[in-house]
Amino acid sequence: MNDLLVIMFSALFVNNIVLMQFLGMCPFIGVSRKTNAALGMGFAVMFVMALASVFTWAIFRLMLEPMGIEFLRIVVFIFVIASLVQLVELFIKAKSEKLYKSLGIYLPLITTNCAVLGVAFLNINKDYSFLGSLVHGISAGVGFMLALLLMSGIREKLDVDNVPKPFRGIPIAFIVAAFMSMAFMGFASLLG
Amino acid sequence: MIKIALFSIGISAFFGVVLTISAKKWVRKVDPKIELVDKELPGLNCGGCGFAGCAQFAEGVVADPELVGKCVVATRHAKKKIAKLLGVEHKSEEKKIARVLCKGGNNCLDLVSYEGVKSCAACKVAGGFKQCSAGCFGFGDCVQTCKFDALKIVNDVAVVDFEKCVGCGACVKACPQMIIKLQPKSQEVAINCSSNDSMKEKAKYCKTDCMGCGICARSCPSKAIEMVNNLAIIDYDKCINCGVCVAKCPRKNIDQVKQSK
């Protein structure tokens, strides 16, 4: 239980996937203009990360490792994640119109996102158990959503503020992200 | 070597089969008419129809064919085609364009110095900064919302490019002062002022206002102009687009947008 909590807090704050590990910056900058888009994207990423963690862990530990072909994990993980997300998208599209409109449209964007793949690799590198991988996947997703929500709140205000012309739009967003990253460094010794 | 080959083929085959079966099973039943309608639409996603975009309008109009006329940008020919696809008759509606009913800008004096966020909506919340309560703030919320590049801020007041305006109404919704109005193209003349303040007050703070002098009302050959609360109001049932008021107005406030024949 204790180590699950450690995994959770580390993924949320200390090693925040966007602000501290610099993964998944593309949707972070791209989808953070409006808060409800950010929320939808955050949920989609959380869901995909959880799903990806579970399946890739299983495939690695139960198939790749026993067969001695761990080196194939890059290719296999990408393949598996892409197929899973496609499956999920088909399912959501067919079953729930509302759910599709709120998060289904972001699913193709995060299919081969480096953040999702990164989480899958980290589960292996850090030797997490099955439950640990699941918790890590979900928490990394929540950490991503947290960073995205903070960013969208700031950007909505920046859009109407008096930003100097050369900085308007993406440049100021990157500068703000850098400041947020520095702020999150304050969590560095949270877990001792 | 064999292991890798077998594993790759195995996992690819597995997912290939699963995806193919799901694609066939979990098919979203989409009315084919929606795509046919969507092809006829301009695809500009301006939102003038009231829907989020052209794809949503296509869905909405297949569900309720009466809404065909809502698309202000599609040509009459396209709308007739859509109506035929849906099995209804379509009567063409008249094209409208946006008119900004203010010519103040830097011709209108400020009441206070405004240091806040440079957005009309924000300024309205703060209470405005012009001496005229119905004046254009000139921060360009309308310019930003226009998808057809038909609005500009000139001398701190919004100006419409009548060639580019399609009458989608986005600017009307965006203006917090509510001084932009959609007007049918056949109603060529408009009084570009919305202030009901007294003649004395208006004379003090604005140089391009409607003074309330009534010269236009007196010179109108069809008696279409009436002075209501220090502001000229045109009765478009009587207006014959002759343009006499445009010439007679001492502030040059009235403008006429001639319809291209």
Topology at a glance:
The complex is a heterodimer of chains A (192) and B (261).
Chain A: H1 2-14, H2 25-30, H3 35-67, H4 73-95, H5 97-102, H6 114-125, H7 130-158, H8 170-184
Helix pairs in contact in A: 1-7, 3-4, 3-6, 3-7, 4-6, 6-7, 7-8
Chain B: H1 2-25, H2 32-40, H3 54-63, H4 76-86, E1 96-100, H5 120-126, H6 141-145, E2 151-154, E3 157-160, H7 170-174, E4 180-184, E5 189-191, H8 199-205, H9 215-219, E6 225-228, E7 231-234, H10 244-248, E8 254-256
State the gist of this model.
Chain A is an all-alpha fold and 192 residues long.
Roughly how many Å is the radius of gyration of chain A?
17 Å
Question: What is the alpha-carbon Rg of chain B in Å?
Answer: 26 Å
Overall shape of chain A: it is globular
Going across the biggest sheet of chain B, name each strand in turn. Answer: 1-4
The largest inter-chain interface, given as chain pair and residues per side, is: A-B, 20 and 18 residues
Secondary-structure-derived class of chain A: mainly alpha
Spatial gap, N to C terminus of chain A: 18 Å
The unreliable regions of chain A are: none
**Which regions of chain B have little confidence, pLDDT < 50, spanning 5+ residues?**
none
